[in-house]
Amino acid sequence: FGALSGNLFASMLPRAATITIASPATVTATGHGLANGKRVQFTTSGALPSGILANTTYFVINAATDPFNLSATQGGSAIATSGGQSGSHVVREVVSVTVS
After folding, report:
1. Is cis: bond before 67, omega within 30 of 0?
2. What is the pLDDT of residues 15-62, one digit of tens each?
3. Residues 57, 65: Cα–Cα separation, whole Å
4. 16-22 long-range Cβ contacts below 8 angstroms, 24+ apart
5. 76-89: per-residue pLDDT in tens?
6. What is the DSSP string of 42-95?
7. Is residue 4 very low, low, confident or very high in pLDDT (cuts 50, 70, 90)?
8. 11: helix, coil or strand?
9. Residue 99: its pLDDT value, please?
């Protein structure tokens, strides 16, 4: 087995995120490394905008370098947000691991 260098899991680490109150909502997480179809969840030190719940799985759509949109279902339409928000938000990728 060879040695591994660098952080191979950097794209899966929690990232600070901002969320627009819009239709559709846009999440911005600098250098997130997420691709369309990846699953994500949010945590916050305050309140997330209406339309997004903490510790609920969403699917990434329209992914670009920093911004992306969310869908409640794989291949579904973008989520809209409303109301207010507070605190600091964190997005993390939901990863399934199979051990055999």
Report:
1. no
2. 999 999 999 999 999 999 999 999 999 999 999 999 999 999 999 999
3. 21
4. 16/88, 16/89, 16/90, 17/42, 17/89, 17/90, 17/91, 18/89, 19/48, 19/49, 19/52, 19/81, 19/85, 19/89, 20/81, 21/49, 21/81, 21/82, 21/83, 21/84, 21/85, 22/80, 22/81
5. 999 999 999 999 99
6. EEESSBPPBT--TT--EEEES--SSEEEEESSTT-PBPP-BS--BS-EEEEE--
7. very low
8. helix
9. 72
Q: CB–CB of 91/14 below 8 Å?
A: yes
This prediction has a pTM of: 0.85
DSSP, res 12: G
Sign of the Cα torsion 52, 55, 59, 62 reads: positive
Residue 100 scores a pLDDT above 60: yes
| Amino acid letter, residue 91 | V
